[in-house]
Design brief:
Layout: E1 2-8, E2 11-18, E3 21-24, H1 25-28, H2 34-39, H3 43-48, H4 50-63, E4 69-71, E5 77-78, E6 85-90, H5 94-98, E7 111-116, E8 120-121, E9 126-129, E10 137-138, E11 141-147, E12 163-170, E13 173-174, H6 175-178, E14 179-181, E15 187-189, H7 191-195, E16 201-209, E17 220-225, E18 228-234, H8 242-249, E19 260-262, E20 299-304, E21 308-316
Length: 335
């Protein structure tokens, strides 16, 4: 099952995606009792509804009338969920750890940082290039885990029972805020300003329920920027699996329905070829190395097998770029 959020009649609605058709679950439940209608208020209400909500949704997929169906084409999708908390793991792909300057703990334990719903935008929304914040705006495709059942100190072998489904996140990063290096050569990461800012978490286009992705460690993940293939890897290359990360983060938090865990990115980011920040990647056959960071006008396509493609365009900050053109930042050591 795939769930979406979309715009209709001036509001954001909850829906089910069936091929190229969206079923308006809120419209379909308009004549039902209040408890049923509340299950279809939004993604978090639906997830909290558990098996009861899933059963009602399956009925809609098999018998929703034409009046509550609309074509996906021409419908504006929004982020399928607005999580209150996004807990994040960095440096979780072996090739990504090798391609860059690392802190002493990189690759030894999950790097832990936070994004919030204030960072989230949906499919087709702009990623804002704010030169006051960063001159090295980078993009990373990541598999995102959507929590479905609450739990704390969850054992690894039961961890996937707490998963509702999966979606795509673009972990947009301000690299010159993230990577800090001392004159003595010590490297550390400032993951607050480098990771958590407006439009730094494009999310979507849909959430796919866990039953449709029985093995989250066997998915092809790719990033294209302006059509160039920058990243291509399998989620099987993660150092810590989805189950590992659910268990890990549940030590700090009671994981609750609607919380999201993002799982890291493979090699091929712009950072990987930025020698000034310790980049040292050599692209695999078929991949195109970045020659600069993202700039206004760039189109980012983040795709994960069985989920879909999340598309966003980089746009200039409206208050900063009207008087002068955007300045290209060329990666150190590259033409």
């Amino acid at each position: 099952m795939k769930i979406v959020s979309f715009e209709a009649e001036g509001e954001v609605r909850f829906g089910l995606l069936e091929g190229e058709t969206i079923i308006d679950a809120q419209a379909a439940s308009a004549g039902a009792d209040g408890a049923t209608r509340r299950l279809f208020a939004d993604a978090i209400a639906f997830i909290r509804g558990g098996e009861s909500a899933l059963g009602l949704a399956r009925d809609l997929l098999h018998g929703a009338p034409a009046a509550v169906r609309r074509p996906l084409a021409g419908t504006k999708l929004r982020a399928p969920i607005m999580p209150t908390t996004i807990v994040c793991s960095g440096s979780n792909y072996r090739a990504h750890v090798k391609e860059k300057e690392n802190t002493p703990i990189s690759g030894k334990e999950p790097e832990f940082f936070i994004k919030t719903s204030d960072c989230v935008v949906g499919p087709g929304d702009a990623i804002i290039h704010d030169e006051t914040l960063t001159k090295k705006l980078d993009c990373e495709t990541e598999l995102a885990i959507v929590i479905g059942k609450p739990g704390r100190h969850i054992p690894r072998d039961r961890a996937l029972e707490h998963v509702f489904g999966y979606t795509i996140v673009n972990d947009v990063t301000a690299r010159d805020r993230q990577v800090r290096r001392s004159p003595q050569g010590f490297t550390w990461y400032e993951l607050g300003r480098g990771k958590c800012f407006d439009t730094s978490a494009p999310l979507g286009p849909c959430i796919v329920t866990r039953d449709e992705i029985p093995d989250p460690q066997a998915l092809l993940l790719e990033t294209r920027i302006n059509g160039e293939l920058r990243q291509s890897s399998s989620t099987g290359e993660m150092i810590w699996t989805c189950a590992d990360l659910v268990a890990f983060f549940s030590v700090n938090f009671t994981l609750r329905p609607g919380m999201v865990i993002i799982t890291g990115t493979p090699a091929g980011t712009a950072w990987s070829t930025d020698k000034e920040l310790g980049g040292k990647w050599e692209p695999a056959p078929g991949l195109i190395a970045a020659t600069r960071y993202c700039l206004p006008g760039d189109e980012i396509e983040s795709s994960i097998e069985r989920i879909g493609v999340l598309r966003n365009r980089v746009a200039a900050h409206p208050g900063l770029f009207r008087a002068r053109p955007a300045r290209s930042v060329v990666l150190a050591g590259l033409p």
